[in-house]
Write a structure and sequence with these properties.
243 residues; mainly beta; single chain; 25 strands
Length: 243
């Protein structure tokens, strides 16, 4: 993947560039999400696709329905459609979609014990797993959010980065830097795509020591065995990292 220049607002942070052996996965997606065993994604037509991990071109399966964003957890895949309706189904693609009460523009299924999401007003919500729609509003404003094992991470409309315990306790703590999308589901690091599509990682719990990763992505998602992402051309990429 093409190496991009580091963003100016990371200059004050410690940054090292990590060259990666990126491998392209056949297909085209605008959003991708990875669990340990399955890759999920949606394309520019909001069609839903699933592929067993490790994914090859012949293994993509189209899942009925239409979603603008999807997130794969260990047991369930969650997603939202163009009307901000919320759905979930088994992560292996079996069964059917179940609609949940509420409206979200972005949902995260990867949090330890909790589903997190944000609505069209950037209001933040959490729901204890197994979630059946008992949403609890959490103070703050975020445009995108992702749950990890101990903490949840998110970015706001100014691309500021925030974190708090994954159960919603405590308060938000700002992390230096700017990201348009953040992934918290790596084992040891969080990952993010910056406004210029540069890729960054920070060792958990992350206080701002960002390390640059070679390449460019508009959105990314980490699991214990790889970093997955899509670029501005909707190409799908995978890299094996020390996550």
């Amino acid at each position: 993947m093409q190496q991009l220049k580091a963003s100016w607002w990371f200059v004050a942070c410690f940054a090292a560039v990590y060259g990666q052996n990126w491998g392209q996965i056949s297909g085209a997606l605008k959003h991708v999400s990875a669990s340990v065993n399955y890759i999920w994604g949606v394309n520019s037509a909001d069609q839903i696709w699933m592929c067993p991990n490790p994914c090859s071109a012949a293994n993509w399966v189209q899942i009925p329905g239409a979603l603008k964003q999807v997130d794969a957890g260990d047991m369930e895949a969650w997603g939202v459609n163009s009307n901000d309706d919320i759905y979930k189904r088994n992560v292996d693609g079996s069964g059917s979609w179940t609609q949940l009460p509420g409206k979200l523009k972005h949902v995260s299924a990867s949090g330890n014990g909790y589903i997190w999401g944000v609505n069209s007003n950037d209001d933040i919500y959490k729901c204890k797993k197994p979630c059946t729609g008992e949403w609890e509003q959490v103070p703050g404003k975020l445009k995108q959010i992702d749950g990890g094992y101990d903490y949840v991470y998110g970015v706001n409309s100014n691309n500021d980065i925030w974190t708090r315990p994954v159960d919603g306790s405590g308060s938000w703590r700002q992390i230096p830097g700017k990201l348009k999308h953040v992934s918290a589901s790596g084992t040891h690091s969080i990952f993010g795509a910056a406004p210029d599509d540069s890729i960054w990682r920070c060792k958990k719990p992350c206080v701002g020591e960002w390390e640059r990763i070679d390449g460019g992505l508009t959105q990314c998602d980490a699991t214990i065995n790889g970093l997955f992402g899509v670029n501005s051309a909707n190409n799908i990429w995978r890299s094996a990292l020390g996550l």
